[in-house]
Amino acid sequence: MSKKKELPELNDETEESIEEVVEEEEEVEEEIIAALEENTVYIKKEQAQLVYQKGYYGHLQEDGTLKLDPVEAILLSERKRIRIFDKTGTEYDFPKITKFYIELYPDLWVKYLSYKDLRSRGYVVRAGYGTEIDFRVYDRGAEVGTEAANYLVHTVVEGTPLSLNALDKITKVAKSNRKKLVLAVVDRVGEVTFYKAQDVDL
Question: Residues 100, 134: one domain?
Answer without folding.
Answer: no
